[in-house]
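User:
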Amino acid sequence: MQLFDRDQARRPVLTEAGGAVLSEARSVSVGVDNLRAKVKGLLDGLEAQIVLAVDVMLPIARLVGAMQAFEATFRQ
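Assistant: Predicted structure:
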């Protein structure tokens, strides 16, 4: 399968198939990065899962602020 067209331009250009393969390769790369981050977090003692119960009386702005702070601290 030809992934690059080397005849039309000075520099190789992706064919349609090449673009499709590149898209999948990027997805795999992101998946591998996420897996590495997950394993590192587990090795560092982070919990694999967190369960959150929220009372209806909690102001939504406060909940959103807490979730944003959590994400900023524990982003993977």
